Amino acid sequence: MKLQQVAAVAALVAVALAATTASAVTFEVSNTASSTAGGQRFDQAFGLDYSKQVLSDASTFIWAIFNQPSEADRRPVDTVTLVVEDIGERIAFTIGNGIHLGAQYVGGISGDVKTEVSGVLYHEAVHVWQWGLQDYDVHPWIFEGIADYVRLKADYVPGHWVAAGGGDKWDKGYDVTARFLDYCDSLKAGFVAEMNGKLRDGYSDDYFVQILGKSVEQLWNDYKAKYSQG
Ligand SMILES: [Zn+2]
C-alpha cells in the first residue's frame, strides 16, 4: 500500500477502536413492577429503551465531568443495570453497578416524568462510576454531593433544591454540597474531576487544600460570604 492508503486504513482502524470503546458498556434495564400503577406509568412515560439511552448519555456525561476520556481511567464496569421495582417509598438506590428505581416514586411524580426520572438516573449513575465508595459510610456527603453536582451540571435540578449559597454546612450532602462543589469548581475548572480521582484512596478534608490551597472551612466561609451580599 502507498503511504496515503496506509494512513487512511490507520484512521479507519482508529475510528473502529473508538467506537468499540464507547460501546463497551452494556446497559440492561427491566421493570419488575409492571403490574403496579407506578410501574405502568414508567412503561408509558419513560420506557425501557429510553432508559438505556439516558443511562448511556449519563455515563458519557459523567466521564466528561470526571475527565476520564479513556476506559482505563474509569471504574472497571462492563454492565450497568436498572431495575424498576417496588422499594416502598424510596426514590432510588445503587449497589455496585445496579440501579434500583422505585415504582411508587415514579407513580407519584407531579412534574414531567422524563425530566424527573432522568435527573434521578444521572444521580444514580454517578454512584456506579465514582471512585471511593469504600468510604461512603463515613463520609456519605461528598459522594452524594458529587452525584447531585453532576445532576446540576446536566441541568436536571428539581424544584425543591436550595439555591446557590444555600444551606448551613458543606457536609450536608446532596444539593447543598453540590452547590458548594460548583463554587469550588468555579475557582478551578476540573476541581470535581480532581476530587473524584483523589477519592480513589478514600476521602480526606485535606483534598480541598491540595487542590485549591484553602481548607474546606475557609472555602465554605468564602462561599457563604459571596452569596450573602446579594
Ligand atoms: Zn445518591
UniProtKB/TrEMBL annotation:
Pfam families linked to this entry: BSP
Signal peptide: 1-18
Keywords annotated in UniProt: Signal
The keyword Signal belongs to this UniProt entry's keyword annotation: yes
InterPro entries noted in UniProt: Uncharacterised_BSP
PANTHER family: PLANT BASIC SECRETORY PROTEIN (BSP) FAMILY PROTEIN, PTHR33321
Name of the protein described by the UniProt record: Uncharacterized protein
Encoding gene (name): LOC100829117
